[in-house]
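Internal QA ticket QA-208
Title: Verify multi-chain structure generation after dependency bump
Assignee: T.L.

Test input:
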Amino acid sequence: MSDGGQVTNPAPTIKRRGLMLVLSSPSGAGKTTISRALLEQDSNIFMSVSATTRPKRPGEVDGKDYIFVGEDEFQSMIDRGELLEHARVFGHMYGTPRAKVLDALNRGIDVLFDIDWQGTQQLGNDGSTEADLVTVFILPPNSKELENRLHRRARDPEEVVRHRMEKAADEMSHYREYSYIIINDDIDESVGEVQSILRAERLRRERQLGLHEFVQGLHDGA
Amino acid sequence: MSDGGQVTNPAPTIKRRGLMLVLSSPSGAGKTTISRALLEQDSNIFMSVSATTRPKRPGEVDGKDYIFVGEDEFQSMIDRGELLEHARVFGHMYGTPRAKVLDALNRGIDVLFDIDWQGTQQLGNDGSTEADLVTVFILPPNSKELENRLHRRARDPEEVVRHRMEKAADEMSHYREYSYIIINDDIDESVGEVQSILRAERLRRERQLGLHEFVQGLHDGA
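Actual output:
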């Protein structure tokens, strides 16, 4: 650009390790909407697909919404150490297959997790991924709003709603175990907040793998 | 809104503790431009004004650019514990007055610091502010660019430039002590990155002081 001289040291692309972005919240706090918006607007993150023993619901696609497996197969996955975390929720097993996540992290791709506090705790205890975790807890703006949203799914039987409210209270009691807290008062604002967290966490020194060589190059050139 | 019912629990404003955003970089990496843009676009952060013993330059305003003090007065500030950090750079003393910073943090206002690695280390060692620190290191995109920028200040004598380049190399060798690393290849991109870091760090659980009561309220209402 300047001096008509040639550019001797163009800026290299710094290799980056991917991160695991965990969004947890009580059901009805808007997490699904936020996740969807995030995935639409950011091409370097994909949603981790859980394995589950719960029956497929109408419209769900195997391998996309969930990996649907039987109890025996799920137990085998646990036994072979193929799951990063697993838990029983409402009588069904849910778990995160390990291989696809680790492969993404190594290739600098981020993975989004829509899991509860139990799953988050297990991810945090797994030595292979602990440092890759970025945990976000989403809270509803007030209890009235939470209650409204839980009732809005009209097809669910009353007992399921009650279960869900108990689970919501249980889930909320674990907010302290998360690094970032978002109060979802406005959905666009909340999406922007999650995006900022993602952008910031990508800039963390430990995730930028080629920094040592890069700074070395600056020294040598200067 | 819905059901014609009254809103029983409006979303409270969560009280927040301010944070200390430290930007360090070798001279010529674009830090000043980034700081200025950040301050213009965000009304909840102000620049910490350092005390210094270096002579006032033409155009500089006492109390705005620096607090200009004599050597004796500076030493008294150290002795009275009034400085969060201080260091000698190019023969002059520089330091950060403590009271104004702590007052801002307590009122939920963020403070921007344009200090070097020595000052950053001292802030990190001060028990009263360690948890409030968010440290960002800005690197130039390549050594050619760095060199150009260091020479661009034509009024500086060659010896000062040489000093500055040595200091740049010294400063860069400390990048590992920072949490976030930004490679300033594009100024708008870099400003956006600092803004994302600021927005994300404001959402950290430990900085949102009213969360316990807020979640309690959600439980009681649900």
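Spot checks passed. Confidence is low (pLDDT under 50) at residues 1-9 of chain B.
Status: verified.
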